[in-house]
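A brief tutorial aside. Many learners find it easier to grasp structure tokens once they have seen a single protein encoded end to end. The record that follows does exactly this for ABC transporter. Read the sequence first, then the structure, and try to relate runs of similar tokens to stretches of the chain.
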Amino acid sequence: MNTSRTSKTLLASALAALLIAGTGCSSKAEEDKPADAADGVRTGPGVTDDRIRLGALTDLTGPYATLGKSIVQAQQMWADETNAAGGICGRKVEIVVEDHGYDVQKAVTAYADLSTDVVALPQVIGSPVVAALIDDIERDQLLTFPQAWAASLLGKDPVQVLGTTYDVDMIAAVDFLTRTKGLKKGDTIGHVYFEGDYGANALEGSTWAAERAGLKIVDQKIKATDTDLSAQVSALREAGVKAVLISAGPAQTASLAGVAASRGLQVPIVSSAPGFAPQLMKTPAAKALEAMLHVVSAAPAVSSDLPGVKKMVASYEKKFPGSPVDSGVLSGYNAAQLLGADLKKACEAGSLTREDVVKTHRSQKNADTGLGTPQNFSDVNRPASVSTYVLKPDAKAVGGIVVAEEAHVAPGIEEYLNS
């Protein structure tokens, strides 16, 4: 046996195997690396030479179906306007919509299908949905704008809560009641709220503000399926409340106001923004809502005189005649405009990869679409804005609501955020 020849053969085989393995690793690494498009811009999932794909996880068949439809239509209007003007980075924008019906498991499945080929999510409806997806979103570095405002969604680079959070708005609500409705030390305020992150976060804000003002909170936790609040009104009346806060949906707000009015509990009611919809002004509760309700919101009313809002409303009414112009239209369009600005800046910097889109977004400290207050996205642990509008129902106004107080920072907000 020729030992030298055998050794050479074995060495050659090992080298060949090593070269093949090395080639395989190199090829795999090349596949994983972002590619450069024909125009030199680095791209990743959701971006090709001629298209930018965005995803929307929305509710078109569940409790927030009306809101979901408004947001989807507003964002599609933005995409159409953007494409008519030449697109972004020379590419057409496409929004892929998935309906989860406010079912968390359906949303998780839809995200798995959608997330492989989109660069960002300008819409995800529901705090429970975002909470279930937040680790995946962070892993995928997929810039996401929730249509949810729980403070528990802060702290993740790719997840951007737009405007204020529920707790900040409720601090503004308590301040509004003490300033304008005569509430004083020792008085009791009721707070009706949905179980889950939305209601819990709102209650955190109201409890903190009440303690600071020397007020007492009597809380009433409800489920999204609870649409008759007679029992809650009875409990609040017995507790002698001088005002009521509600952090729930439109059906619950209507029931609260209607039942309270019919039972002689004529006290001010202040709702979180998701608790109002213009359709309420065509229900039997409309009179009670006009007489008793205010709404705290990061966004102005769609009836606002802001030029950007007026232009958006006119375009929406022309494109979708007969569709209600509600807060979802403003919220959805604002989110789409902010994302569009992020994508344009990322393109100018030479990269539309997910990671670079997130970095570009977080670099913005004074983002202003003209649809409300400027926002600072640089601190992941703080709300993008701490200024709250106070709105008031008005059946004659566009969107069924008007601005009662312009955006302002309520006393104690910085103390609360730093506590």
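Self-check: Residues 3-32 form the longest helix (30 residues). If you spotted this yourself, you are ready for the next section.
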